[in-house]
Design goal:
Blueprint: E1 5-10, H1 17-26, E2 31-33, H2 34-41, H3 49-55, E3 60-61, E4 64-65, H4 67-74, H5 78-102, E5 108-112, E6 127-132, H6 135-143, H7 150-158, H8 163-169, E7 172-175, H9 180-198
Parallel strand pairs: 1-5, 1-6, 2-5, 6-7
Antiparallel strand pairs: 3-4
């Protein structure tokens, strides 16, 4: 039996990727949310806590990883970030493998990966859908978030592949600068396109 078609879903901060991922789920498409998996593995009694605490003393507590303390230890330190990724990435890969086994009979699954292009995840998928919106819409969404400011927003953008490059590399583009209804219709159309291409009949 052939495996499902794997659609990578990505987009820069504030582009509406989480909203689009929820639309795929609502349409019955299984979604592997890499960020959610990491949060669970790093949460209370999470599987990654012992290794994280050993590598970064004082970065965990009863509620799981203490994100501000861990962030302070890895921020602007490429070597520390690499050590953290060596802890996190294999665990996420194992969860992704289990997800694929669970949904092996589906025609389509979605890998929701924020840093798909930045970390090489595009090599693991069959096609990439990029979620995008006009810059002014993105900026307004991000700056409305609690604790966000223009400098922090600019720093986050500097770490991400520019939206224009993502759009150029995308197999499919999902515009969230329109109404939610229009975006949802675009998602449904994309699902139909991909599943029709997979149907041998």
């Amino acid at each position: 039996m052939s495996r499902p078609f794997i659609l990578g879903l990505t987009g820069s901060i504030g582009m509406g990727k989480s909203t689009v991922a929820a639309m795929f789920e609502a349409a019955g498409v299984p979604v592997f949310d890499a960020d959610a998996v990491v949060h669970r593995l790093q949460g209370p009694r999470g599987a990654l806590l012992p290794a994280t605490e050993e590598a970064f003393p004082g970065s965990t507590g009863e509620q799981g990883v203490l994100r501000e303390k861990l962030g302070a230890q890895v921020f602007a330190d490429p070597d520390a970030l690499t050590r953290l990724e060596r802890i996190v990435h294999p665990a996420v890969a194992a969860q992704r493998h289990a997800f694929m086994i669970e949904h092996s009979g589906e025609p389509l699954v979605v890998f929701d990966i924020p840093l798909l292009y930045e970390k090489g995840g595009w090599e693991q998928v069959d096609a990439v859908a990029v979620v995008s919106a006009p810059p002014e819409v993105q900026r307004a969404r991000v700056l409305a978030r609690p604790g966000m400011n223009p400098d922090k927003f600019a720093h986050i953008l500097s770490l991400q592949v520019p939206d224009a490059e993502k759009r150029a590399r995308a197999d499919y583009l999902i515009d969230t600068g329109t109404s939610l209804f229009a975006t949802e219709e675009a998602v449904k159309e994309l699902i139909a396109t991909v599943t029709a291409a997979r149907d041998p009949s």
